[in-house]
Amino acid sequence: MHAPLAPTTRLPIGSDTDLARVRRQVRQAAADLGFRLVQQTKLVTAVSELARNTLVHGGGGHMEMTLLRDGTRRGLRLSFVDAGPGIRDVDLAMTDGYTSAGGLGLGLSGARRLVQEFALDSTPGRGTTVTVTDWVSGLPSPRAGAP
Ligand SMILES: Nc1ncnc2c1ncn2[C@@H]1O[C@H](COP(=O)(O)OP(=O)(O)O)[C@@H](O)[C@H]1O
Ligand SMILES: [Mg+2]
């Protein structure tokens, strides 16, 4: 189960330009898999927050993107990886409004609500990996010109 459909793609996250590229690639992959527009937008919004955290809090890193198949479901799994300071108190970091850096503190908590699966793995002093996965069932829907 969860067999990869294609090799994992790895994209750097080291600049605002990289953030834009990551968003664009995720939007494209989600559309290709047949995710509906609302699901695409939720996923890209979560990705935007997580990739920005990788850049701002993690000091840069990369995203790994893997296409999955599980029976008739197809999925998109995205990992945001950095070797930054890590998160000492994950529950606190996941709390709405908590920020250590003058942000809004809604990135992690918001991202968790926007995706189907969410996992945060962090070791203080070693880094952080956040992995999100979204699934779609059935055949890919036609993209262009569909009513
Ligand atoms: N990749 C990361 N590395 C280290 N700390 C992180 C990382 N991602 C999030 N955090 C911590 O979790 C807090 C909450 O993140 P978030 O909800 O996105 O809020 P914000 O980015 O606005 O501060 C951050 O302020 C930071 O302390
Ligand atoms: Mg944030």
TrEMBL record:
Coiled coil: none annotated. SUPFAM superfamilies: ATPase domain of HSP90 chaperone/DNA topoisomerase II/histidine kinase. It holds the Pfam family HATPase_c. Signal peptide: none annotated. Residues 38-138 form the Histidine kinase/HSP90-like ATPase domain. This is Anti-sigma regulatory factor. The lineage of its organism: Bacteria, Bacillati, Actinomycetota, Actinomycetes, Kitasatosporales.
